[in-house]
C-alpha cells in the first residue's frame, strides 16, 4: 500500500472528540443499570439484557454496518451517531421528569445506542489511517487507547458524584453532553482524498463476504484474528469468575473489588503511555508476543494470591494492574496491522469482519467460564485464563507478523 502523509490537526480533533465520546460511553454504561434498578425496580434478567444489547449490536449488525461505513462519508457517519446518542440519552431524563419512564424505554434506548456505537466505532477505526502517516498508526492507536483509559478511570467517579446530587435518570445528562461535545469536536475534513475505486462497485452483501474472507484467509490477518480471539476468550473467562473469586473466595468487600477495578484501569493507562516507545524499540511482532506471554504471570499471581507472601489484596491488585497493562500493550501492538494490509475502500468491512470473530467469542467464553467454574471450581478457570492468554502469542509467533517492526516486510504481505 502507498505511504500516506498525516494530518496532525485533524487527528488532534479526533482525539478530543474520542475523549468526550469515551466519557459519554462510560457514563451511560455506568448509569443505565443504576437507573433500571434504583428508579424502575428492574431485576437481574432486565439488567443482564440491558448490558448485553450493546455487544449484541456489534455481533448482529457489525458486518453490514462495517460495509455501509465504507460507502458513507466517515465523518458524517460519526457525527450522526454522536447526535443520535445525545438525543437518546437526553430522552431518558425527559421521560423521567414527565413521569413516563419505563424499563422498556431503557431497553430500547440501549439497543439504539448500541447500533449508533457500532457506526461510530466502525467509522472511527477506518478513519484513523487517513489522518496519520502509515508509519504512525501504532502511535495513533496508542493515543486513542490512552484517551479511553483516562475515561475509564475518571468517569465512574464523576457519575457517582452526579448520583449523589441528582436522581439517577437526571445524571444521564452527563452522557448526552459528552456525545454532543464529541460531535462538535470532530474534524470538518480529513484533508485526505481516497484513491478512486477501479471498476464497478461490488454488491453490498458480496463486499461483506469479501471482508470476512480476507480477515480469515489472509495469512497475517488470520494470525492476528486468532491471537485476539484467544486473548478475548481469556479475558472473558477471567471476567466470569473474578468478582466471585475476590469477594466470595478471598473474602474481600465489594468496595475493595471496586478499588481493584481502578488499579486495573491505571494499568491500561500506563500501558497506553509507554506503548509508542515500546513499539519503536521492539516492533509490532515482538511487542505483541511479549505482551501475550506477559499475561501468564499476571494471572498466575491471582491464582496463587492466597499462598504468596504478603497481603493477598496486594497480589490481587498487582494482577489487575499487570493484566490490564499487558492487555492494552497487546491490543495497541496489533491495532495498526489491518490498515497496512487492506485497501482503504474495504477497511471498514474488513475490520467489521475481524470484530465479528474477536467479539463473537466473548459471550461464548463468558458462558463457558461460568459453567466450568460451577462444575470444576474457580481455580481451574483461573489457570485456563492464564494459559489461553499465553497461547495467544502462538499465532503471531508462527506467522509473518513476528518479523514486523513498523510494517510488513515485502515478502510478508502476501496472503
UniProtKB/TrEMBL annotation:
Name recorded for this polypeptide: Na+/melibiose symporter-like transporter
SUPFAM superfamilies tied to this protein: MFS general substrate transporter
Highest taxon, organism lineage: Bacteria
Membrane topology: Multi-pass membrane protein
InterPro entries in the cross-refs: MFS, MFS_trans_sf
Keyword terms: Cell membrane, Membrane, Transmembrane, Transmembrane helix
Main location as per UniProt: membrane
PANTHER family: INTEGRAL MEMBRANE EFFLUX PROTEIN-RELATED (PTHR23513), MAJOR FACILITATOR SUPERFAMILY ASSOCIATED DOMAIN-CONTAINING PROTEIN (PTHR23513:SF6)
Location(s) in or outside the cell: Cell membrane
TM regions (residue ranges): 49-69, 81-98, 104-128, 165-186, 223-248, 254-275, 287-308, 320-342, 354-376, 382-401
Keyword Nucleotide-binding: no
Keyword Cell membrane appears in the UniProt entry: yes
Amino acid at each position: 500500500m502507498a505511504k500516506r502523509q498525516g494530518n496532525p490537526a485533524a487527528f488532534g480533533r479526533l482525539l478530543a472528540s474520542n475523549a468526550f465520546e469515551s466519557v459519554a460511553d462510560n457514563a451511560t454504561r455506568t448509569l443505565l443499570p443504576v437507573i433500571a434498578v434504583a428508579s424502575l425496580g428492574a431485576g437481574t434478567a432486565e439488567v443482564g439484557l440491558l448490558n448485553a444489547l450493546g455487544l449484541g449490536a456489534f455481533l448482529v449488525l457489525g458486518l453490514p454496518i462495517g460495509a455501509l461505513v465504507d460507502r458513507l462519508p466517515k465523518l458524517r457517519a460519526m457525527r450522526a451517531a454522536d447526535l443520535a446518542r445525545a438525543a437518546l440519552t437526553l430522552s431518558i431524563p425527559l421521560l423521567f421528569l414527565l413521569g413516563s419512564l419505563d424499563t422498556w424505554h431503557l431497553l430500547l434506548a440501549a439497543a439504539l445506542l448500541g447500533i449508533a456505537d457500532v457506526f461510530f466505532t466502525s467509522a472511527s477505526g477506518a478513519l484513523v489511517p487517513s489522518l496519520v502517516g502509515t508509519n504512525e498508526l501504532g502511535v495513533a492507536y496508542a493515543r486513542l487507547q490512552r484517551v479511553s483509559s483516562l475515561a475509564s478511570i475518571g468517569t465512574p467517579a464523576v457519575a457517582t458524584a452526579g448520583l449523589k446530587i441528582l436522581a439517577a435518570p437526571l445524571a444521564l445528562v452527563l452522557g448526552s453532553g459528552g456525545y454532543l461535545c464529541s460531535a462538535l469536536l470532530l474534524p470538518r475534513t480529513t484533508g485526505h482524498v481516497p484513491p478512486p475505486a477501479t471498476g464497478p462497485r461490488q454488491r453490498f452483501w458480496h463486499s461483506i463476504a469479501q471482508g470476512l474472507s480476507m480477515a480469515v484467509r489472509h495469512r497475517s490477518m488470520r494470525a492476528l484474528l486468532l491471537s485476539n480471539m484467544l486473548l478475548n476468550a481469556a479475558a472473558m473467562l477471567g471476567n466470569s469468575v473474578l468478582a466471585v473469586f475476590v469477594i466470595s473466595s478471598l473474602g474481600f468487600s465489594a468496595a475493595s473489588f471496586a478499588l481493584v477495578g481502578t488499579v486495573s484501569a491505571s494499568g491500561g493507562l500506563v500501558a497506553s503511555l509507554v506503548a509508542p516507545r515500546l513499539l519503536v524499540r521492539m516492533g509490532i511482532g515482538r511487542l505483541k508476543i511479549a505482551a501475550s506471554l506477559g499475561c501468564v504471570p499476571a494471572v498466575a499471581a491471582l491464582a496463587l494470591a492466597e499462598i504468596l507472601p504478603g497481603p493477598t489484596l496486594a497480589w490481587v491488585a498487582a494482577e489487575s494492574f499487570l493484566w490490564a497493562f499487558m492487555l492494552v500493550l497487546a491490543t495497541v501492538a496489533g491495532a495498526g496491522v489491518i490498515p497496512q494490509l487492506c485497501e482503504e475502500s474495504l477497511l471498514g468491512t474488513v475490520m467489521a469482519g475481524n470484530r465479528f470473530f474477536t467479539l463473537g467469542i466473548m459471550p461464548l467464553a463468558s458462558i463457558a467460564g461460568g459453567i466450568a467454574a460451577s462444575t470444576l471450581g474457580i481455580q481451574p478457570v483461573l489457570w485456563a485464563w492464564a494459559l489461553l492468554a499465553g497461547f495467544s502469542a502462538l499465532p503471531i509467533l508462527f506467522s509473518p507478523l513476528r518479523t514486523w517492526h513498523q510494517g510488513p516486510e515485502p515478502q510478508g504481505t502476501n496472503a
